[in-house]
Amino acid sequence: MGQLVIEGIILGILTGGVYALMSSGLTLVFGVMDIINVGQGALVILGAYLSYVLQQYLQVDLFVGLLITLPLMFLLGVALAFIFRPIKRDRTVLSVLVTFGLALIIEGVLNLLFSADTVGLQGWYINASIPLPFFHPTFYLPYIYVFAFLLAVVLLGGLYVLLYRTRFGQSVRASMENRTAAELIGMNVERISMVTLGIGVALAAAGGMAFGATGGGFNANSAYDLISRLLAIVVFGGLGSLSGALVASVVMLVIENVTDLLWSPTWATTVFFLLLVLILVVRPQGLLGQKEGRKQ
Amino acid sequence: MKLFKTLSLLLLLACAIAFPLVVSDGEMTTIAFFTLLFAAMVTGWNILAGFSGYIALGHAVYFGIGAYALAIICDHWGVSATAPWGPLPAGYPIFLLAPVAGLVVAAIAIPSGWVALRVRRHAFIIITIAIFFIGQLLAYNLRAFTRGSSGFDLPLPFQWSGNAYTLPFYYAVLLLLLLALLIARAVRHSHYGLCLLAIRDDEDRAKGLGVKTGFAKLTAFVISTWIIGTAGALWAYFIGTIYPNSAFDPTFDLAVALMSFLGGLGTLSGPLLGALLLEPVRQYLASTNPDWYLVIYGALFLVVLLLLPRGIVPTLQDRWAQYRARLLDRLSEHKVEVSLAAPLPALLWRARQHGVSLYAGRQERQERRVEASLSENSEPVALNQEGGGHQ
After folding, report:
1. B192: helix, coil or strand?
2. ipTM higher than 0.85?
3. Taking CB atoms and an 8 Å limit, are B121 and A93 in contact across chains?
4. What does pTM read for this prediction?
5. What is the DSSP letter of A287?
């Protein structure tokens, strides 16, 4: 019993890192551009498929392949930013619908190219595992969980340095705080938005590789399951709050893994969603979110 | 004008009633059934999303609950579709149970709507999506109620066969659509509807002025879910077997929202128009081109949202008003006496009578421009070029 809880917590923290990658992109983009990217789930799956193609046809290692997929997905994000330029009125609401449309297109294209069969990623670290000491019966932790978590730490660390230690990061944070004011003092908010969306989509791709490697198989339909979790995470943590997204990812995955091991896997996600609803009854703005000001 | 409107609406209704009698092809009537089903649901959704501005993207959960409620009621009471009940012939009693399933949905919508309506704008959208996924997961997991992923069978009306199978469903759903339209109209023209519009425009100010915002939002939520739940029940009876992933369909809300946006969110006729235009296209695409269906549908979605974000009806209304204003300008320039409130056909007739054309000739326009630049007051010309200011 106690050991199962500890196992659940370990797995939860490690996979929570992967979800933090995907959800930080979502919340960052919301903060800067005021758009909710419902297509993030589909973009994650797209990233996973890119890694799959590189591995299957060019025999590129998953982690090395990121050197190709990340820049590609960054460019895709920059290109997507052009779609949102003409939307000025009701931006948030329209963006949900627009990105849902994008998600449908991505899902349709992926279905056309790869059919609906589930595929999996391969690598020695997916099959091999570390036997952890002090556990009876022995608990085998696959290497990929550790590697994916390390990847998340490296990328999120890089994001932290970019946001809090560079001039560009300063302007991103300024636009997150007050877009109009940032524009008024002469910042090129449109360009900042483009780069931010690029970063968000690139993070989704990295998350996609890690998701594909840790979560077993995936197909284009996995996007729905993913986006519901990602939205739940960012709302739980507070929309537009990066630290909130990180905390919420870990909390959600720990709860899910512990419920999974103690009770049953079918109830794991439901428990989290119920927790989300409860939290929102008490704190409508989420764990670390700020109360929304009055909008004229 | 009012007579004209009423007559055209009656004509439309007559067409709708006659349609399955004229076109007896089963495939066509099925498409028509789905079109009317979506028209009813979009009209219901619009009462919440269009009037109060709360864009709910999880109403598929109430559709699914309505479907399951009817299935469970029929199973529990042992209702058969082949035995008559009282004066009703076999198969029809279940249509009476559909609104009851709708009431079950409305009862569930009260607590879930209360939770969702505690937040606004984007957070509201996301919570409704989360509630949708909770509903779908529960449908999979509460096996005792829903029989999980193996699906739930509803009573089958064997006596209706072949191309005539769709007929009773078609008329049932037409009735629901009429009811939904009447409800939406009553809401729109009532004090309560004005409260909803006030909430959409500025909720805090509305609250400050004494509108009971919480109550108004929740009732709009419950009304819309009743309509959608009843539609879900009718759909379940039509389909025969329901599964968690078909009754709780994540693309459902997308379709409903797209139809609303295409026609014009917040208008009475807009959502109806959107559903009548889009649902046949969707059904056609899904049946003839399943591979490209998602890609085409998604692209269509983007085009509609980016090119016509306000919808067809509001855009046309604007054009209409502009046209009318220009005509009035021209008539007053020619010193033709008309009432400002006269309808457009009357204006056109007067213009024709007095030989006033809407577009001034090029020479005349140039002359007037010179005149205007010479005189101090250049406003009429400027107004004319802008296309009139009466909106």
Report:
1. helix
2. no
3. yes
4. 0.81
5. S
